[in-house]
Input
Amino acid sequence: MKKTIKKTNPTPTLPLSGEGARMSHDPNSSPCEGGGWEGVALKKIFNPPAQIPKRRDLRKNLTEPERRLWSKIRNKQLGVKFRRQHGIGHYIVDFYCSECALVIELDGDSHFTPRAQQYDCERENFMRTLGFETLRFLNQDVMTNVEGVLMKINEKISATTCAAHNK
Output
């Protein structure tokens, strides 16, 4: 008798990427608790092929706050490499540093709704279960105080065990 092995996909079904975020002036605070994405296969998580057109479009059409922050963090200006519009699961994050396990999200006006805040909690919980920390900044903060935003990012980089930064 031949035994049949059923192949299963260890990657759970994730919410589709889109707008939605929690608004907070404190990037270290989070109303989100819990998780629920344990056992996710990391090798199947990054930059799924189905996201390639969306990611390319987002990189070509950065918002002004994204463009301004990217000009300050690209090319290892903070000592670590950041990627922009990086796919993690079904989410596309604004900026991602693999050495520091750090995600940076910029939140605009569309992020004030309760539905967007719930979506963002789910997204942040997912990132947390993968060991990633999320820093959130308001678009307005990037536009009016980019040096303060960079200072917060640098503090986080210095406080973590970033492979490239702490060599």
